Amino acid sequence: MEGFRPAHSTGTLGRHLARRLVEIGVHDVFSVPGDFNLTLLDHLVAEPGLNLIGCCNELNAGYAADGYARARGVGACVVTFTVGGLSVLNAIAGACSENLPVICIVGGPNSNDYGTNRILHHTIGLPDFSQELRCFQTVTCHQAVVNNLEDAHELIDTAISTALKESKPVYISIGCNLPTIPHPTFARDPVPFFLAPKVSNQLGLEAAVEATAAFLNKAVKPVIIGGPKLRVTKSRQAFVELADASGYPIAVMPSGKGLVPEHHPHFIGTYWGAVSSCFCGEIVESADAYVFVGPIFNDYSSVGYSLLIKKEKSIIVEPNRVTIGDGPSFGWVFMADFLSALAKKLKKNSTAVENYHRIFVPPGIPLKSERDEPLRVNILFKHIQEIITGDSAIIAETGDSWFNCQKLRLPEDCGYEFQMQYGSIGWSVGATLGYAQGAKNKRVIAFIGDGSFQVTAQDISTMIRCGQNTIIFLINNGGYTIEVEIHDGPYNVIKNWDYTGLVDAIHNGEGKCWTAKVRTEEDLTEAIAKATGEHKDSLCFIEVFVHKDDTSKELLEWGSRVSAANSRPPNPQ
Q: Is 341 helix (H, G, I), strand (E, B) or coil?
């Protein structure tokens, strides 16, 4: 058979897995070594197309794979059995909530130990090796336990292809004695995957388009709102087609920011209920028809379930289903197909765009601060708006950075990532590492609160090791500000660190790293000038001191509404 070559020493499970990762677009794998994965790591190191990046802990390795998947479409991490697996679990749960295909590979026990009564280290002391697997079953779309070479090829390929098809994480456990053993099934390079395209039910698609067009064409001032599932369905281009053809204003749900073009002439801002962009919420909630494309309505995105949205006026476009008002629902209709087909059937209607321009008043520009006046957050973000370009990518940590970064107007091609559904504090440190590694054509600008940074700080070390030139703004306001606004207590005050001193110690003279402390607007302009000038090739860590009560007005409003939702009394029995 053409292309076939007989088995030889390189036809091993370890080499097959390494080649398969490269083939699907993974060129950097984030890992923490442990005795059960060491021989597998040897094969990943030996693969020319792969770069193995050692992280400080498994949680950050998982967050880095999450960030890499956001930049490249798929990510991977490798940890050891149970102690590593349960450490990375939280990051994999976050990737699952955000629909990110992350290949989580675990070095498992020796294949001979399965089915015996032996107790192994790195376990809880029982001769049952399934604890880790059971934990991963709820946060991954597929699990493969490879403890036999005969079916290893099929198990690995099925797991990886399922991750790509479902856009969710998968778990692959590989017996520690298997990666180096040649086997005939691995005798050639992997045959590239062919993932069958998802094709809409044509009759359902036509019926959904016809019913939606009838609904919208009789509306007076319809609007379109893009949500986070635009990513998983690869529907961003189709969304723009619909926006161009319809003439409707387009808004974005907070968790969809970065997926909707903000340079589009019909873009009106973020729709987030009571904390929407100025004039955006009024236009959306006063519309007589709204098309929500790929939304997630949770307690955070609905501001404590307080959106003034009526179901009978809504068209909800899910990844594979369209529901019109209270009425019909059409299944097996895929989002991109539907949006492109609908664009051809709508009458142009710019009424709501005209209404928006009629009522719109440009936001007030913050007054220039007095000399040596303590820096205010709104002045910080005025300067950030001036430096972001299409070559930038914004990473916003869970907390007040959600609200401040949400107000940035993103230039064309500017990346934007945050983790709104799962909201795990500390996510951004690992995610920044992974995103910057996956998007080397962009300069990442990360906004991290001091409380979140304390959770995962140590992988600044890995960023320096990888030669990344990210700019990190560490917002030092003395605690968990987002939690203060939901429910205050002494537990929201944290021990203050010398953050630049910590990063300098981690730098330790190896690699390129520059730090600065900023207390005034003058300090800020000088620091930004250096970070974008003489230190543009270095990791730049800028600690920004702000008052503990200097929060966005949106967080104050949002916090009170989420607090009210959290404190609802039990329903009477």
A: helix
Question: What residue has token string 């969710």?
Answer: 168
d(CA 452, CA 512): 24
Which tens digit of pLDDT belongs to each residue from 110-120?
A: 988 777 888 88
Query: Facing residues of 539 across strands?
Result: 513
Indicate the SS3 state at residue 448: strand
Return left, alpha or beta for 287; rule: phi > 0 is left, psi -120 to 50 is alpha, else beta: beta
Query: Which of 121-125, 456-460, 534-538 shows the lowest mean pLDDT across its residues?
Result: 121-125
Reference 62, options 422, 548, 497, 464; nearest CA is 422
Instruction: Read off the DSSP letter of residue 174.
Output: E
**Euclidean distance between CA atoms 78 and 82, whole angstroms:** 12
Which residue's entry shows tokens 């919420």?
281
The three-state DSSP-derived secondary structure of 508-539 is CCCCCEEEEEECEHHHHHHHHHHHHCCCCCCE
CA-CA distance, 80 to 321, in Å (whole number)?
39
- pLDDT tens track for 190-205: 888 888 888 999 999 9
Beta bridge partners of 154: none
Beta pairing, strands 267-270 & 170-175 = unpaired
3-state secondary structure of 543: strand
